[in-house]
Design a protein that fits this description.
The strands form 3 sheets. Strands 2-5-8-1-9 form a 5-stranded parallel beta sheet, with helices on both faces. Strands 3-4 form a two-stranded antiparallel sheet. The protein has a two-stranded antiparallel ribbon with strand order 6-7. The protein folds into 2 domains: about 5-185, Rossmann fold (3-Layer(aba) Sandwich), CATH 3.40.50; about 190-280. It is an alpha/beta fold. The chain is elongated. It is about 45% helix and about 15% strand. It has helices spanning about 20-30, 45-55, 70-75, 80-90, 110-115, 130-145, 175-180, 190-200, 205-220, 230-245, 250-255, 260-265, 270-280, and strands spanning about 35-40, 60-65, 75-80, 105, 120-125, 145-150, 155, 160-165, 180-185. Helix 8 (about 190-200) crosses helix 9 (about 205-220).
């Protein structure tokens, strides 16, 4: 394990409000050279944390967006057999068709391994993958190497990446997977934390508008029957929309009006439920 003195400390980023416990777990994960697993509902800032780490530590960010149908080999490398076949048929390529390595392209994990400098590797929404993918991926990340079978070559990491893995907690992860990560649950911000976040994004926001928006936002999140509650991203965009409207006044929110409801609720069913509830607020 590398000495802790080699690591820059993560203390937050320009647009990311960080609680002390999360800062500590990020730094200890880098110290232990273990992947950091982040769980929490959508919109709690799991993905953005990786961007914030990369920004603060001046590292490039490589993002692997996990899909349900994804195979681990696709995240490591791809062998472009179709291009090789076309090159062999038409003979107008500068590549040597007898050299298979010319047709090997690194996947996102492979790119992080062969990078000339240390990078942040974000593995986003790991809970979409099956258990075999999860466990096999962590074997690769433990060993910091993988084999390209087509050319009988082992790829070893040049610089161990900072690894952030996110999960929306829609599916349980295996015990071996959990045992090989450090872990942090990011709870949805409470009103005080949300106020800090809004102040970072809108430092000149009028206090009356900030208070009215946050109170309305949390009231809307409590509407029963909503499948996808509005998250921090929606609140920020909603405030932007309100500020763009020259005819808007914060007092309208205090009267139960909610302009631009579609900025907050993105599913048709949720929008209808919210609109009905807002109408009741006003009455």
């Amino acid at each position: 394990m590398n000495s802790g003195s080699q690591f820059l400390k993560f203390t937050g980023a320009s647009k990311y409000v960080l609680d002390p416990e999360l800062a500590r777990i990020v730094n200890i994960s880098m110290e232990l050279e273990m992947p950091l697993l982040l769980k929490g509902e959508p919109g709690t800032g799991k993905t953005m944390l990786a961007y914030a780490i990369a920004e603060t530590l001046h590292m490039s960010l490589i993002v692997l967006n996990v899909k349900s149908s994804m195979k681990l080999v696709d995240a490591l490398y791809q062998y472009d057999t179709l291009t090789r076949l076309n090159d062999s048929r038409f003979g107008d390529s500068k590549r040597d068709v007898s050299n298979i390595e010319d047709y090997i392209k690194m996947g996102k994990i492979g790119q992080a391994f062969v990078a000339d400098v240390r990078v942040v590797l974000l593995i986003d929404e790991i809970d979409k993958a099956d258990t075999d993918f999860q466990d096999d991926m962590l074997d690769v990340l433990d060993q910091m190497s993988f084999d390209i079978v087509e050319i009988d070559k082992t790829i070893k990491t040049k610089h161990r990446p900072v690894i952030v893995i996110t999960s929306n907690a829609k599916k349980d992860l295996s015990d071996p997977f959990l045992g090989r990560c450090t872990f942090h649950h990011i709870a949805f911000p409470n009103p005080d934390m949300m106020r800090e976040i809004i102040n970072v994004h809108f430092p000149q926001l009028e206090r009356e508008l900030s208070k009215a928006c946050i109170e309305t936002f949390f009231r809307l999140r409590e509407i029963p029957g909503v499948e996808k509650k509005p998250a921090t991203r929606e609140l920020i965009n909603w405030i932007r929309a309100l500020r763009c409207d020259p005819d808007f006044h914060p007092g309208r929110l205090n009267k139960g009006e909610v302009p631009y409801l579609g900025v907050l609720f993105k599913k048709s069913s949720d929008y209808m439920v919210a609109a009905q509830q807002v109408a009741r607020f006003r009455n």
